[in-house]
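Protein modeling request. Please complete all fields; requests missing the sequence field cannot be processed.
Requester role: graduate student
Desired output: 3D structure, token encoding
Chains: 1
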Amino acid sequence: MLKIKEHRDETPSIKTIRFFEKLDADPGQFAMVWVPGVDEFPMSISYAGKHFGITYQVVGDGTKALAKMRVGEKIGIRGPYGRGFEIKGKRLLVVAGGTGMAALGLLVEAAKARRSAVDLVLGARTSKELLFEARAKRAGARVHVSTDDGSKGFKGLATELAKSALDDGEYDLICACGPERMIVGLLRIAKGRHMKMQASLERMMKCGIGICDSCALDGKHVCKDGPVFDSDELEAFEELGKTKLDLSGRKTPI
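Delivered output (254 residues):
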């Protein structure tokens, strides 16, 4: 049980909680977050080390309850869990869709520490929902913005803007986190260019340690084998972008 040090708004629907405690984590790893009396669910670790933090979007009962937690109150944290990103090469194209940037802020900063250049494609529905744009710029990333409504930057999908970036430059690796259909689109682009790619996937998780099977994807557990997978693993998933398991364990279309 950890005490909340800071609870701030990032966008109208996205918030960050930071704690007094230290937690070391690799970019892309996650924690299981327990709101007492409500539920437990996975959250990307958006800040590591001293005063580590989680960043989340208020969408369901669990996150609505989390959003009401105040500085000084305590929530339960398990982790870090899963396999994160592995930085390879001197120039990365990082693609974030919506709240996917919560998992990628650490990656951009880690790339700077390794002296790898980063071009970031940051996508959101509207300019008000762009996450960690200033943080990425402070870390030295060259940021390219796309919004669905055209309120800032390129009007259209992050995948379209990523394709333009690939047309204009050479990269050693694509790293991505966002909606699964975006991941599938990027994977298709990467394969056509014979490029390596790593992507963080989001699936239903109840345990976070590979026991409950709720995050199963073609025989692998996203919580334990991932959530970050490389392009060879991603291409082998037949269910990627097509189906997922719901709370009851039934396959449902994405």
